[in-house]
């Protein structure tokens, strides 16, 4: 069970790091969006950052609770019955799994938002090219 928990903790840490990196990349993308469209995405980014902070805090609390349990077990602190310890451990495991699911959902939202941002940038680039070609045609017509 301990190895399973260690693996789960490592997995959550990895996912948190990936989510942090995605948020940073998305922040950079939002900065590239024209100011008139940037507000909506900036507020979404603040929301994502807040959710990320909550997830990290939940994860930290779960790790602290788990490390306290391990320490008590190693020190032989049997103040609680083994059933209470088991219930507490299951509660922490469930909390960690919920946090992992929320993190995964946040990650999916971040990926989708990044894709939408990329599509918008591509559309804007195509529109810019069309406008430039139209200007060139108008200029050539005027000069003739």
From TrEMBL:
Compositionally biased tracts (Basic and acidic residues): 85-97
Family (UniProt): Belongs to the VTI1 family.
Compartments, record wording: Endomembrane system; Golgi apparatus membrane
Subunit structure comment from the entry: Interacts with distinct SNARE complexes that contain either STX5 or STX6. Interacts with NAPA and, to a lesser extent, with NAPG. Identified in a complex containing STX6, STX12, VAMP4 and VTI1A.
Domain called Vesicle transport v-SNARE N-terminal: residue spans: 3-62
InterPro entries (alphabetical): SNARE, v-SNARE_N_sf, Vesicle_trsprt_v-SNARE_N
Primary location group: membrane
Coiled coil: 2-32
UniProt-listed Gene3D superfamilies: 1.20.5.110, t-snare proteins
BP GO terms, sorted: Golgi to vacuole transport; intra-Golgi vesicle-mediated transport; intracellular protein transport; macroautophagy; retrograde transport, endosome to Golgi; vesicle fusion with Golgi apparatus
Keywords of this entry: Coiled coil, Golgi apparatus, Membrane, Protein transport, Transmembrane, Transmembrane helix, Transport
Species the sequence originates in: Corvus brachyrhynchos (American crow)
Record-given protein name: Vesicle transport through interaction with t-SNAREs homolog 1A
Record membrane topology: Single-pass type IV membrane protein; Single-pass membrane protein
A single GO cellular-component term on record: endoplasmic reticulum membrane
UniProt cross-references to Pfam families, sorted A to Z: V-SNARE, V-SNARE_C
Region: Disordered, residue numbers: 74-97
UniProt-recorded Gene Ontology molecular function terms: SNAP receptor activity; SNARE binding
């Amino acid at each position: 069970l301990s190895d399973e928990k260690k693996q789960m903790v490592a997995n959550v840490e990895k996912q948190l790091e990936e989510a942090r990196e995605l948020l940073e990349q998305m922040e950079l993308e939002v900065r590239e969006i024209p100011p008139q469209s940037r507000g909506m995405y900036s507020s979404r980014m603040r929301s994502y950052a807040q959710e990320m902070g909550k997830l990290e805090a939940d994860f930290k609390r779960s790790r602290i609770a788990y490390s306290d349990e391990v320490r008590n077990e190693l020190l032989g602190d049997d103040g609680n019955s083994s059933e209470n310890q088991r219930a507490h451990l299951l509660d922490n495991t469930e909390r960690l799994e919920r946090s992992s699911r929320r993190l995964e959902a946040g990650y999916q939202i971040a990926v989708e938002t990044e894709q939408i941002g990329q599509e918008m940038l591509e559309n804007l680039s195509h529109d810019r090219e069309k406008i430039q070609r139209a200007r060139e045609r108008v200029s050539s017509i005027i000069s003739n």
